Amino acid sequence: MMTNPWHSVSPGSEGPHIVNAIIEIPKGCRAKYELDKESGLLKLDRVLYSSVYYPANYGFIPQSYCDDHDPLDILVLSQVECVPMCIIEAKVIGVMQMIDGGEADDKIIAVAANDMSVNYINDISELPPHFIDEMRHFFEEYKKLEKKTVVVEEFQNKEKAENIILKSFDDYRKIFKQS
């Protein structure tokens, strides 16, 4: 029987500071891959309608749960594009808080712990301002041609991100009745 990475992969032993991230979409990709919650496989949700590309490796934190009934999203900065379903040790540095279709949809921002080109970064305030602008622009624009609205509210620091992660772990345990 196939295991589902949302439920069977550990979120890591050093959370919420360093978490395992399961990548769904490589940096630079226009395909919107998503975990199929039943099978645990990746499915192609759609090709992005706009001519934009994911600014970082994008995926989720296993054994987490959010208000949108999905695992907590995570963007992992690295100098390389990571293949889908790759597990990355991700050092949490902040969070981008946004509203997607009227629902809160937080995106944890992290750096690949094993990538020397980024793992010295400890907080989102250390990122170049232009990169923050690129992330904001991507998420505000990528659904416009689908006639959907996304509002990026604000970028918050590592402490706020870690609190969101802890809540998502607690919510996961409540929903899936694990102690």
Automatic annotation (TrEMBL):
Q: Which CDD domains match?
A: pyrophosphatase
The entry's keywords: Cytoplasm, Hydrolase, Magnesium, Metal-binding
**SUPFAM superfamilies per UniProt:** Inorganic pyrophosphatase
The GO terms describing molecular function are: inorganic diphosphate phosphatase activity; magnesium ion binding
Subunit and interaction comment: Homohexamer.
Task: Tell me where on the tree of life, at the top rank, the source sits.
Answer: Bacteria
The cofactors named for this UniProt entry are: Mg(2+)
InterPro entries xref list: Pyrophosphatase, Pyrophosphatase_sf
Q: What is its main location?
A: cytoplasm
Location in the cell reads: Cytoplasm
Catalytic activity annotation: diphosphate + H2O = 2 phosphate + H(+)
E.C. number: 3.6.1.1
Among the record's GO biological process terms, what is one? Answer: phosphate-containing compound metabolic process
What is the protein name given in its UniProt record?
Answer: Inorganic pyrophosphatase
Q: What does this protein do?
A: Catalyzes the hydrolysis of inorganic pyrophosphate (PPi) forming two phosphate ions.
Q: Where does Mg(2+) 2 bind?
A: 73
Q: Does the record carry NADP as a key word?
A: no
| Organism of this sequence | Chitinophaga terrae (ex Kim and Jung 2007)
